[in-house]
Structure formats: C-alpha cells, structure tokens
Amino acid sequence: MVKDLTVSPLDRQNILNNAYALEKLEEYLGLGGTLYEGEVLFTKQQLVEIFGVSGSTIEKYLASHGDELSANGYTVLRGRKLRSFKALMDVSVIDYGNKTPALGVFTFRAVLNLAMVLVESDRARVIRSRILDIVIDVMAERAGGHTKYINQRDCNYLPAAYQEFSYRREFADALNSYLEMGKVKYAIYTNRVYQIVFREKAQEYKQVLRLNKKDSACDTMYAEVLMAIASLENGLAAEMKAQSEQLDRKLLPSEVDVLFEAAEANPFLKPIIEDARVKMASRDLGFRDALHQKLEAYIQSVPESDFERFLGETSRSLEEQLSDPEILAVFKRLKDR
Questions:
Q1: Which residues are CB-contacts of 34 (< 8 A; sequence separation ≥ 6)?
Q2: Average pLDDT of the residues in 131-158
Q3: Within this chain, do residues 253 and 214 fall inside the same structural domain, yes or no?
Q4: Is 287 among the domain residues?
Q5: Which of 158, 160, 154, 157 is nearest to 311 (CA)?
C-alpha cells in the first residue's frame, strides 16, 4: 500500500524505530552535521539550508510536532553542553550567534522525522521518497529476500510452533472424540479459534497476507499468536472432554458453541489474546505492509526491540535455527513433557 509519511505518525515511527534503515539512510543521504558526544547533531540554521525553507517554517513544525520530534531526538542544549558544542561549531550555523543561552539541535533521526512532515520543501519530498525505497531494500536484505516468513526469524518461533502443533492434535482429537458432527467440524472450529484470537477466518488471514492456497497460515504466524492459539486449543480440548464424560455422550454443536463463548469471555485468556492481536496487527503492517482491518484498533508502532528481534544479528533463518543443537534440545524437552 502507498504510504504518505506526511499524514501517518505510525508509518513515520515504524521507519524511525528501524535502526538498520537509519544506518543506510545516514550513509546514503550524507547530510553532514556535527559529531558531538558520539552523535551527529544539526542546528536549525543547517536544516534551513538542507531543506531550503525559512527558520520560521521549521519553528512552525517544532510547535505542531514538538512531542514527536523530541521523542526522536530534538533537544535544547544549555550550560556546559552548549558551550562544548559551540566550541565545535562555525558561529554562522548557530541561529543567534555566539551569545545564545540555549540552542535547539536535531539528531539525524529527528532530521528524518522533520523531512517526513515538511510539506513546504521539495528537498524533503525527495528525501521521503528515498526513505521509503531504502527501507524496502533494507527489509528485504535483512529478511533474506522476502518478509512472508519473517516471523520464523524469531528464536521463540520454533518452540511456539511445536507447542501449537502438539495442542492442535489434542484439539483435533477432542473434536473427533467428543463432538457429534461430520468432518466439516475441523475447519469450522479451527476458524472459530482464529476468530477468537485475531477476528479472522483462515481464508481471510491468507488474503490479508497475500498467501497462496498451499501456504500454511500457521507457518506465517508470530510466536505470541501461536501461543494464544495453543492456549485456546488446549483449554477447549480439556473442556470438551470433561463435559462429554460428565454427560456420558458426545456433545452437540450447540453445546460446543457454548464452550467457545465461555473461552472468548475468559478473563485469564484476555491478556494473552490482546497481546497476540497487538503483535500481529502491528508487525504485519510494519514488516509485511499488510493491514488487518479487523484489528486496526490494536495497531501500534513496531518497537526498536522488534527490529532487532526479526532483522538483527541474533535473528536467524529457520534453516540456521534447525541446525542449532540448543534449539534441538528444546524440541526434545517439549517432546518429552
């Protein structure tokens, strides 16, 4: 989908939280700045020259987007910090000369933030275009060429997938043993589980992620989503068994429906399900450019820790994880539980 960074704080923050994209952008754009205490800083006067706008225009955006810019690195230097910074600078790029008691400065991240909202500048518009191109390139490069299975780069994915597979078998066995209904029950009640967790049927989920018919939906789900599904499947299997044994017969669909309604309202499951919805909706939009419309209320910016988790040096492809003895040991423990 086409992103308009000037109007979407969420899209802006997803880019600004991606340290790998910022590194490439800093190298590509070559905006200059002054290295101060390990970080490159820019004055307002330097941004006037970079963007070709007036100082009052930048002040306008500091007023309208102050909280966002401050969160992304805009700060005001005073006292000792100001004196040591000015010692590195040409007075001509300090807005009020050498006697100013305070000086607002922008980190590179804050400069990008300003470029994303600055509609009066053609140079900012060009930078926005390059930002989007470079972010796409970085995501593809770090994820091994595609993001369909970016979920599998998480070290928690394999244990969660194995557990969900195990509990799914128990759930299927419970449907087989305790529900009086034809084979269509497996698809119907799997969809019911998905709808409780993320409000979509399997086919809807596949459409949002643009998956092929042969693609497994579970293979693309994040560890937190798989654990929420496993928790539901495990609890429902136990409830079906207990009620069927109590009644000494198989359950009717209407009776199983009541169990599903109770599970959906269960306060113990609510935090797990809420967390799964936030993770799925936010990451799929940020990593896969996929919007789950039924979960729009749960979308947040992707935190910096998630970019490290799925794109960083410690994230690994599924093949790499499967060759790790420690991962295989985890599987053995799960198998023997």
A1: 40, 41, 42, 85, 88, 89
A2: 88
A3: yes
A4: yes
A5: 154
